[in-house]
Amino acid sequence: FPRTSFLYIAVSLALIAWLIGAMRSGQIALRQNWLLWSLAGYIAILLISALAGGHFERSFFSSHERMTGILTFIYAFAWFVMAGSVFQTKDWLRVFRAVTVTGALIAIFSFLSIGGLNLESFAFMEHGGGILANSTFAGIYYLFAFLVSVFLLLKDSSRGWRWAYVGSLLLIGLNPDIFNFSVWQGAHSLSDIFGSPSLLLGQARASAISIGIGVLAMGVTYLIHRLKISIKRKGLLLGLGGLIIVLATLAFVGSATMQKGFGHNFLQKQKDFARPLVWRQGLQAFADKPIFGYGPNNFNYAFQDNYSPEVAFLEANNWFDKAHNSTFAVLVETGVVGALAVILVFLLAVWYAFRWYRKKEDVAPLLVVVVLLAHFIQTQTSFNTSLSIFLVFVLLAYLSAQSEDAPKLYKVAGQAKRVACAVGVVVVTWVMISLAILPAVTNRRVITAMASGKFENRLEMYESLPSLKGGFSQMLYAVTENYINALFNNLDQFDNPVAKEKIRNEFGVILDLYESKLAENNDDFRYLINYVNFIHVSRLFGVDRMERAGQLLERAEELSTAHPQLYWLSALQARYLGDSGLALAEIEKAVAMNETITERDSLLGQTPTISLTIREFLLRNKDNPGKIYYQVTEL
């Protein structure tokens, strides 16, 4: 379910209230400074990159799993404009308190679910992370909540709230996503821990390390603040410290990408072999489109264009739609232009923070910059989420509000200006309904229908799938995978003429869905091979579109020959059409890839086994005239 829809709705309601308040008071406040204009410029660059990338809808809406499209940036920017213009000190205190309290609540859910107490009633949280889907998503939020709690301990004078912040720090810092819960259960001795301190890290390791670095950086920043030296010298020390952090982080990424040095060695010890390979592909993709990149949320195209077979061997069931590194994500998706815009925004944030510090000697804005730096470190092995995008804009809005640029008051007088505000209310309401409420309702209906055993309910769901902006292909993959698995696990229940006819009809509807969006996804390798796989299943139930499957495989081969999945399906396609010789020739191409990966035989994933078992299947059934099928579960 797209939880980000709730953020869209909340921001929309706040904007509506802001506009209505402007109409009633006859004036509207707007803080204009370089930070505002730089963010507006960055969003403009995102739009240009999306147009240049050729997949605008995906860039704008993203997928319902991620919700990190340009639309999320626009909503976050709208909140930035509004909050940065009208919020007072007490308002910011409430915002930051909300961040730390919600972080503590999410941590409680993590304690109760898998990795923690593992209570049966919380078993549905099977990937950890409390209510935030998985440990990675939760870890990203925990960093903000934890460091904001540290920030508030120094900033907030309320004794009761200070105890609340301490409680939040304990809950977040000791929850299973950040701290290894098995330590409390006596799974590791003190000698083990001293010998390998990484045993203390929870499921979100990168976030745990980044939180530690963030706390250390905050402590150093505060100590420099307390030194009896000039502001200029403090600025030099702080700037040098920040530069060291950034350069060390980039050196780590560079080492891992080049596969030598301390970064590479660290990830090898963590058995994280795939990420550096993907980063290397990202570097190649940046070289292909260096100016505006592939477009936001289009890393999957960069991934397929520069694919290395090693990724399939090490991560057999993973298709990377994210770079898992914010530096490469920016470079690949928005090119050098987008990267320069991000750097400019950060430098302006630092400038406004230090300008305020120089004037008021208030360390708070500098600590906010430390949070941004810690998040930068964190996302070198992960990615931005919709929540982290909003939280970054929250921190930037706070820094904007601390600037010396007072909000300008614009009079909303006269019929024309009042009508303009009224139109703004209508537009925001329409956008909220069409881009937040209706998609959320549709998504909920789809999820409900997927779990339904009623044929009619699923048909209604298929009709509504094309209305899911940006998330169609991901949802279609999920629908078809669930349907195939449910069907094959319960074949005996459907062994009657009525059920078989309904299955044939349903397969036809799903295939028509794939075909309806083929023109938009004709350059998407993953879409093509999933379409072919579903055609192969359909033939078992009397729906023959094998000719179309052949055309799709030809198109997939034009896109890339580096994927073993292509040869799995090409081999099976030939066998299903009765050409056993061609089938064996095709699968040998996949088997040959096994020999190219020799360094880490003990760590290889399922890909080599799949290639070999398909070959065994083809040899065993070489002379079998029946209608056979091999279910490839690792596409």
From TrEMBL:
Keywords: Membrane, Transmembrane, Transmembrane helix. The chain crosses the membrane at residues 6-22, 34-56, 68-87, 99-119, 131-154, 163-184, 204-224, 236-258, 328-354, 361-377, 383-399, 419-441. It comes from the Bacteria. Residues 198-342 form the O-antigen ligase-related domain. GO terms for cellular component: membrane. InterPro entries: O-antigen_ligase-rel_domated, WaaL-like. Its main location: membrane. It is a multi-pass membrane protein. It is found in: Membrane. This is O-antigen ligase-related domain-containing protein. It comes from Candidatus Harrisonbacteria bacterium CG10_big_fil_rev_8_21_14_0_10_49_15.
